[in-house]
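Structure first, sequence second, as always.
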């Protein structure tokens, strides 16, 4: 159960939320220093386009499509429901769905245009925050909490954690490399995801018993020590 897994610390949650808000306000205000940092990083990342790297980044970004993140979450929720972790299954779907709504609202508020140069894969819609990055972070944490934490070998756990961290980094890098996002878009999405996951975990603890009485009637009260 999710309650048995380590949660995101309050300090990390508040810090992530604050960083996201500062980035969001800076982007909305077209802060010149942020734009200068963004363009500087892009020029380094896009200094060359070797065919192998372009192919790899294209594959990474396709796998991390926001629509696929929803599919991944449904699969995770289906597994959890099958093993009778029904509150956790519902929470998984609510977390990905609620998070996508929040990210969409942020996009509509900021309305940042996509970068206008070196777009290898043309993208539509607004740029801040990155939906690919947001979804990747959410899915990675779900995998860590529900599956990796259950592995018996600490070594395998560590390796799995490293691989998942590398995956998130690759997704973030691919979005900048392919010209779909500014660096601040992907970092903003990362910090928004961390803050949202912390809120979602808090809601899980608060609402577990209420939801459990409807979907897990025999489990009523088993979460009383969270």
């Amino acid at each position: 159960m999710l309650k048995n897994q380590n949660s995101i610390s309050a300090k990390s949650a508040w810090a992530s939320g604050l960083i996201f808000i500062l980035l969001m306000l800076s982007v909305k205000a077209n802060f010149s220093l942020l734009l200068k940092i963004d363009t500087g990083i892009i020029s380094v990342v896009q200094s060359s386009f070797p065919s192998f790297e372009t192919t790899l980044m294209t594959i990474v970004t396709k796998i991390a499509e926001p629509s696929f993140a929803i599919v991944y979450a449904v699969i995770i929720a289906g597994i959890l429901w099958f093993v009778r972790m029904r509150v956790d299954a519902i929470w998984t779907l609510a977390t990905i769905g609620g998070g996508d709504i929040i990210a969409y609202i942020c996009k509509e508020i900021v309305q940042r245009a996509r970068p206008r140069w070196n777009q290898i894969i043309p993208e539509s819609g607004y740029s801040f925050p990155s939906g690919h990055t947001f979804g990747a972070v959410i899915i990675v944490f779900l995998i860590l909490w529900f599956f990796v934490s259950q592995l018996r070998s600490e070594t395998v756990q560590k390796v799995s954690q490293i691989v998942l961290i590398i995956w998130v980094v690759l997704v973030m890098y691919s979005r900048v490399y392919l010209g779909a996002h500014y660096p601040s878009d992907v970092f903003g999405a990362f910090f928004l995801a961390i803050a949202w996951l912390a809120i979602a975990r808090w809601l899980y603890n608060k609402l577990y018993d209420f939801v459990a009485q409807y979907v897990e009637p025999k489990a009523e009260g088993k979460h009383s020590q969270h």
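Margin note: Residues 219-226 have pLDDT under 50 and may be disordered.
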